[in-house]
Write a structure and sequence with these properties.
The complex is a heterodimer of chains A (about 575) and B (about 160). Chain A has 22 helices and 20 strands. With about 160 residues, chain B is of the alpha+beta class. Chain B has four helices and nine strands, in the order E-H-E-E-H-E-E-H-E-E-H-E-E. In chain B, strands 5, 6, 7, 8 and 9 form a five-stranded antiparallel beta sheet that branches. The longest helix of chain B is centred in the middle third of the chain and has 13 residues. Chain B starts with a strand and ends in an 8-residue tail after the last strand. The interface between A and B is medium-sized, with 18 and 20 residues.
Chain lengths: ~575, ~160
């Protein structure tokens, strides 16, 4: 039987096992919405702005290891979605974005709500398609899911003109896909793995640096086993937090611009570095010239060959799925006679302990004003033994969350690492809460970031999402203020907001619970009270120290070991 | 250093813009770029002439390989290869210049393919260097118009790029 393109699209989603579509209707997608209305296999979540639809789908993907799906209309629907798509692209998040387009005969005519969607999004998607014939529709959607979720994942966009949604053809959803031009590598080269292992065994000062690829590649268990069997120190990037347990004695915490003193010093001074699922980005290794003042051998494991030798030259490249490569490394290690140099390792740990003793994350615990670090630390203490997911926005609060919340499990820490998109925190929490309805979902944010997608409080009401918002309110765009203090002679150009809303009333007007917390002694009772409100969204507005800065800090252009410390 | 990179890509709308967009987004140089369908109508073959350090060329080939529409990438400069470019030059050819121009075309094995009282249009094939040399050899002011295709390249001998 021939059915319409709209029905085909919705059936494809259902057959792909899609649980939620995040979206916003409009002219070009009306037929698609009509079909969504007629069925109940795929649930639609109506957001208040298309950017949030993409972030919510992204958040859903990050916690669930399944591609997120969103649906927006042509023109402004697409341009609003671009920030969300670019955010997902930078962090390699599997996602399928369905966009409406003007009818094929109107394309190129500057029609109402027409934009060149494929052109606009090309630089920020893994791949995109314009479907011009309904006969190609089902196969294209299948390809989109396949490309999005294999190899190095990423968003894939399918642009569907309105007339394609009304044209008819037989529906067949392909069982599998083969693309002659797309064959991601899975198995790492066993010879290279052998070479890497013997290099690691010769190391006097080994270091393991694990990135977001561990999370995306579901390789946390393999990494943890490998690191523990060797007894080597391990650091995680911002995107890799939870890939190796933060409370493990071998964990040196996060590295990079706001990484710990011990992690950055160990990175700088190690003699063999194993990088897994990480990309040596500028926020992580600082100035590459400075990084290479010390001599070290680098082993780099990544599923994406173009990530290898992009910013730094490596000695042993291994292209492959990190899970597969780490498992193979552990196998070869168990089978071989090679053992780490115990004496050297002991001396290395003695050095690391000295760096740790610098206590780089210390802050004033006696302050009469709320220290933001204290809020995160208390939140961690209260939630560490429960099923909890943390999302954040972008700025100082994001760094404090990353430093003070100890993530022991993967997919528990959701933030925009690559693009650094303010406004993601609340929609991320929405997507994550839908994926894990019974878990605690806490969004750690600031008063500047939260206002970038504040309209989503309305979506949270509609779907009864009991998110807990921890707003670290210092009345400044804190990270901008910090840079202005350090590098622009205390000239706080446009980083102070003069007219903030009363967040308690704002939350209440959306039908949620609002709290304002002003004293350090109230942090714990307030958090406890909020967490106990299982069925309600609680907006906690913490009035925090305006002058607090994030330390350690590697200033832009400086070397990893040239940190500003408290 | 100059490199000639040959690609096979899906003959689909937008494939060319993905390659061109990649070069501009990542700040790579393009000296020339040519593209046309192959004997297999589902595939296009592209030749890109670019310059850069070894590290940059390595990144260029990796990034090209990453594009979903790109089926195969070869850096022809890594081995023996043949490079050819076609140029059409319209030159002033009147009075004493007329005979001289014909002789120059012959020396460079060019062909005069269009003639008027005052002009010749010369077709010339060769490496980019040869075409440059021809233009250098002409007297100043005689060139009225030039058009070049950009280089096409193919491996020598048994070196074959196909799927």
């Amino acid at each position: 039987m021939e059915i319409t393109g709209a029905e085909i699209t919705v059936r494809c989603l259902a057959d792909e096992g899609v649980e939620y579509v995040f979206g916003y209707p409009g002219g070009a997608v009306l037929h698609l919405y009509d079909e969504l209305f007629k069925q109940d296999r795929v649930k639609h979540i109506l957001v208040r702005h298309e950017q949030a639809a993409v972030h919510a789908a992204d958040g859903y993907a990050r916690v669930s290891h399944r591609p997120g799906v969103c649906l927006v209309t042509s023109g402004p629907g697409v341009t609003n979605a671009v920030t969300g798509i670019a955010t997902a692209y930078m962090d390699s998040i599997p996602m399928v974005v369905l966009t409406g387009q003007v009818p094929t005969h109107a394309i190129g005519q500057d029609a109402f709500q027409e934009v060149d969607t494929v052109g606009i999004t090309r630089p920020c998607v893994k791949h995109n398609f314009l479907v011009k014939d309904v006969k190609d529709l089902a196969a294209t959607i299948k390809k989109a899911f396949y490309i999005a979720s294999t190899g190095r994942p990423g968003p894939v966009l399918v642009d569907i003109p309105k007339d394609v949604t009304t044209s008819r053809c037989e529906y067949v959803y392909p069982e599998s896909v083969h693309l002659r031009s797309y064959n991601p590598v899975v198995k790492g080269h066993s010879g290279q793995i052998k070479k890497a292992l013997s290099l690691l065994m010769e190391a006097k000062r080994p270091m393991i640096y694990a990135g977001g690829g561990i999370i995306l590649g579901e390789a946390a268990a393999e990494l943890t086993q490998f690191v523990r069997s060797l007894g080597f120190p391990c650091t995680n990037t911002l995107m890799g937090l939870g890939g190796f347990p933060a409370t493990d004695p071998q964990s040196l915490g996060m590295l990079g611009m706001h990484g710990t003193y011990e992690a950055n010093m160990a990175m700088q001074h190690c003699d063999v570095l194993l990088a897994v699922g990480a990309r040596f980005d500028d926020r992580v290794i600082g100035n590459p010239k400075h990084f290479f003042q010390e001599d070290r051998k680098i082993i780099h494991v990544d599923v994406d060959p173009s990530s290898i030798s992009k910013r730094v030259k490596v000695d042993v490249p291994i292209v492959g799925d990190v899970k597969d490569v780490l498992a193979e490394m552990s196998r070869q290690l168990a089978a071989g006679a090679l053992k780490p140099d115990v004496a050297a390792l002991k001396a290395w740990w003695t050095q690391i302990e000295l760096w740790k003793a610098r206590d780089c994350l210390k802050f004033d615990r006696t302050s009469a004003i709320i220290k933001p670090q204290m809020v995160v630390e208390t939140l961690y203490r209260l939630t560490k033994d429960s099923d909890t997911y943390i999302t954040s926005d972008v700025g100082q609060h994001q760094m404090w969350a990353a430093q003070f919340y100890k993530f022991d499990k993967p997919r528990r820490w959701i933030n925009s690492g690559g693009l650094g998109t303010m406004g993601v925190g609340l929609p991320y929490a929405m997507g994550a809460q839908l994926a894990h309805p019974d878990a605690n979902l806490v969004c750690i944010t600031g008063e500047a970031s939260i206002q970038m997608c504040i309209q989503e409080l309305s979506t949270c009401k509609q779907y009864r999402l009991p998110i807990k918002i921890v707003n670290l309110n210092n009345r400044y765009m804190g990270m901008v203020r910090q840079w202005q203090e350090f590098f622009h002679g205390n000239r706080y150009a446009e980083s102070y907001m003069d007219a903030l809303p009363d967040f308690v009333k704002l939350a209440e007007s959306y039908g949620h619970v609002g709290m304002r917390i002003e004293k350090p002694a109230d942090i714990e009772p307030a958090l406890k009270e909020a967490l106990a409100l299982k069925d309600q969204l609680v907006f906690m507005d913490f009035v925090t120290d305006q002058a607090e800065n994030v330390f350690p800090m590697v200033p832009g252009g400086k070397g990893l070991s040239e940190m500003i410390l408290v | 250093m100059k490199h000639i990179i040959a690609l096979l890509l899906e003959n689909e709308a937008g494939a060319l813009s993905r390659v061109a967009g990649l070069f501009s987004a990542r700040g790579y140089n393009i000296e020339s770029l040519t593209v046309a369908p192959t004997e297999d109508p589902t595939l296009s073959r592209m030749t890109v002439v670019t310059t850069g350090s070894d590290e940059i060329i390595e990144q260029i080939t990796k990034q090209l390989n990453k594009l979903v529409d790109v089926v195969k990438v070869v850096d022809l400069s890594e081995g023996d290869h043949i490079e050819r470019e076609l140029m059409l030059v319209k030159v002033r050819a009147s009075g004493k210049d007329r005979e001289e121009m014909k002789r120059m075309a012959e020396i460079f094995r060019g062909r005069i393919i269009d003639v008027t009282d005052k002009t010749y249009t010369i077709e010339l094939t060769g490496t980019g260097q040869k075409l440059d040399a021809f233009l250098e050899a002409l007297e100043e002011g005689v060139v009225l118009e030039t058009v070049r295709t950009g280089a096409s390249g193919i491996g020598r001998g048994e070196r074959i790029l196909r799927i």
